[in-house]
Structures are given as C-alpha cells and as structure tokens.
Amino acid sequence: MKFVDEVSIVVKAGDGGNGCMSFRREKFIEFGGPNGGDGGDGGSIYMEADINLNTLVDYRYTRRFNAQRGENGRGADCTGAGGEDTILKVPVGTTIIDADTQEVIGDLTEDGQRIRVVEGGWHGLGNTRFKSSTNRAPRQTSDGKPGELRNLKLEMKVLADVGLLGLPNAGKSSFIRSVSAAKPKVADYPFTTLIPNLGVVSIGRYKSFVIADIPGVIEGAAEGAGLGIRFLKHLTRTRLLLHVVDLAPIDDSDPAQDAQIIVDEIERFSPSLIERDRWLVLNKVDQLLDDEREQRKQAVIDQLGWTGPVFMISALDGEGTKELAQAMMRYLEERDLRIAEDKDYAEYLIDLDQRIEDEGRARLQELDDKRALRRAGVKAIEDIEDDFDDEDDEEDDEDGAEIIYVNH
To answer: What global pTM score does this model have?
Structure first.
C-alpha cells in the first residue's frame, strides 16, 4: 500500500431543503388554510479517527466529498427528510487544517475521535410558518441555506514515543529490527528507508513503547533536498529523539561532521525541535577497536558540545541495544510521572509541542510555495537577489580586478 501522509480535499455539506407552499384542499372542508411543510436540514461532514488506517491514500485520487442535501417540504404539513451525515475515516494522528486560512480545525489523536468539519445548511420554512391572524393564506416560503464549503489539508503524523533521526545508512532501520519485531528494509546503500517505519519495543511482559524511523536527513534537507525534511514532521509528536551516528561510515566521512549536519538541518527546520530531549546513539562500534571507539566518540561529543546521554551500540549484533531500550523505558515512565507532579513542566511541554508544530508547518509551507513558484516560472525574491549577486561577480571579473569586502 502506498504511504500518503499529506493530501488536499474539498468538502461540501448538504444544502437545506426548501419550504413548500401548499393549501389544504379536501371535500366538504372550506377554508382549509396553509399546510406547506418545512424542508429538511442538509447533512454535515465529520472526520473520524480509525486505528485500523495508517495512510491517507484513500484521499489521494478522490478529493471532493459532498454530504446529502435535505429534501424539500411537502403538502399536508410533511417535513422533508434531513440529509444523511457523511463520515470520513482517517488515521489516528491526522491534523485537519483549513487550506484557505491555515486554521487548525482539529487534531485526531484517539481512536473514534470525531470532528465536524462542515455543517449542513438550515432547512427552509413552509408557508404554514407564515400564517397569522392577519395573513390567513400566506404565499411566502423560504429556501434552505447552502451547506458549508471548505478546502481542507490533511496531515498525518505517526504516533510514536521515540523517534530516530540521522543520515542515510546510519543504522536506524537496523536498530528497529534489533529491538522490535518490525522488519523494515535494510541494505548497504543510502535511502533504503523511503517511508516512516514503526516498531513496538517490549520491555518485560507488560511494558512497551513505540519507536519510529524516518528516511535519512541529508545536508540541505531544510531547503528541500532529499526525503527527510518532509518526514521530520513525524517527529514532532515524539517524546524522545535518538540521534543515531555512524561511527564507521563506508564513505570514510568524519562522524563528527556528519553529526553536526543533522543538528544544523533540524535547527533550520524547527529551532524549537532542538529543545526536545535528545540522546546521542553511536552505532556500528563492532567495526572499531576499543581505542578507536573512544577517540571517535570524544570527537563527536566535542563537535556538538554534547552534555546529554551517550550510548554506544551495534545494531547488527545487538551490542548495547538492550540497555538502551531499558533506559528509554525508564525515561518515558519518569517523564510521565514528572508531568503528573510538575504543572510548570507539563505546561512547558504543551508550549514546546505547539511551537514545534507551528514552525514545522510554516517551513513546509514555505517550501511548497517556492516549488509552486518554480512550476509557474516565477522566481522567488531570494533567487532574484542571487541572480543580481552573480551579475555583480561577472562585472567584477570583466574589469579584471577582484574586489574583496571585509567586514570588521
């Protein structure tokens, strides 16, 4: 099944039924009077979270949804039938956004949770409603109100307790395979992971948590390069981040520099995401001697100025993975306990989650806008300024003398 985590749809609630103009006409009954019934209310559209769904692929090609219209009123004071409500099932973790105003309508985080996204139109009134002592034969009716119309953007974020981030081939998928029953694809080339993978890590008999792996982040991801930038939003709901670093990269790159790339790209995507609790996990230690392990470990710590927890593991042979999984379980339990006891800490986390959500959405919208401008053949302001800079450089070259500006 194709993994789709973002779609745009149009939803239209049902219009209200019109009122009826009718008069009573029966044998031997004179002056029967008005008996036109009201119309029926239009159907509304609801979004409902369903734990059995894990993708928005159902809305990839069918993008317009209409609720049923209310029936018109009839004679003999018959009210028109109301339109049936339409219920659209979406995965748990779906955020509903008004595409025109960027207003967040709702966030479906629990199975069965339901939100009304558009309301059906109000019914029209039949002429019976307008009768009075001075107007005994009214010929007025009212039409039903139109149902609401909205352009919606649906964003699905996987619900996980722990999120993995790192460069391609850092060993994130291998780590999930070693600590859970999940079997994501593993190979010796970059971008093996193309969609987020989830695994359930069981600690003992009654304790478990969910861990998520997203496609690798590369340098320039904040500007749209690679796959990881669009999937970083899946980490906004996590409670702990594991920064996985390959200590023995196959391209002989510097692990310390590789670790710095991830930090820089995360900060460009969402500065507040850096505030999320994060652990450093140094992988593939089985390929290094003991002295070399410590040397490379210290280089990464010095490069990042790291003061948090550091774990050295080998996802391939399981070295250190059990201890890391147990440490994550303890952290999650202590975090929940602190939230229950410390009100200020709980409010800080709520504010942090909202800031990460807003910054990530703004960054992705900025990339989408730039992409739309490129398709339309319109250059963004930044691109125009770069062109001017290039022209200035060319003019300098033609003059034969190179001018270097130094800021003091």
So the answer is: 0.69
